[in-house]
Amino acid sequence: MISSRLIVLPILLAAAAAPVAPALGQGPVNKADLKWGPGPAGLPKGAELVVLSGNPEQEGMFTIRLKFPANYTVPPHFHPAPELVTVIDGQLSLGMGDAIDKAKAANLGVGGYAVAPATMHHYAFTGSEGATVQVTSHGPFKITYVNAGDDPRGAK
């Protein structure tokens, strides 16, 4: 059963065929030390990814950061595990449901936090400034699009 409660949520990632940057380990890390790479194949092109801890492709907890460019959209999708999302910079709009409704989305600024329960259908988008978000979840991380045609892994 899909929860009708948006604990203001996020987005997501898809761990699958995309290479994952090596985790930085458990020690302290400064923003300048992060090594960004292309986003995973399960997200529309334009996202960037860095793994802070764990491995999203394996069993266990992980934390990643995703950079979304201006005017970026992740269509309605869901994940098998909950996502804990914090906005690091910019603004991210999040909504729940099987279709994007920008008027009903929650707008999160720097420091904003949301939880997307497992299997909850949700979507995310940015405005003119883009956003960087931190996501903690339990792997292996998977993303399933509500409409198969929205899945960038099937694009030719």
Radius of gyration: 14 Å
Q: What's the tally of helices?
A: 0
Measured as a percent range, the helix fraction is under 10%
**Structural class from helices and strands?**
mainly beta
The number of E-state strands comes to: 9
Largest sheet: 9 strands, antiparallel
Which consecutive residue ranges, at least 5 long each, have pLDDT under 50?
A: 1-24
Report the order of strands and helices. Answer: EEEEEEEEE
Strand content: 35-45%
Overall 3D shape: globular
Report, as a whole number of angstroms, the end-to-end distance.
33 Å
- The residue-averaged pLDDT reads 85
Question: What do you see in this structure?
Answer:
With about 160 residues, the protein is mainly β. It is built from no helices and 9 strands. The chain has strands at about 35-40, 50-55, 60-70, 75-80, 85-95, 105-110, 115, 120-140, 145. Strands 1, 2, 3, 4, 5, 6, 7, 8 and 9 form a 9-stranded antiparallel sheet that branches. Mean pLDDT is about 85; it is low at about 1-25.
Keyword list:
156 residues, 41% strand, mainly beta
In brief:
The protein has strands at about 35-40, 50-55, 60-70, 75-80, 85-95, 105-110, 115, 120-140, 145. By secondary structure, the chain is an all-beta fold.
Secondary-structure map with pairings?
Blueprint: E1 37-38, E2 48-53, E3 60-68, E4 73-78, E5 83-96, E6 106-108, E7 113-116, E8 122-139, E9 144-145
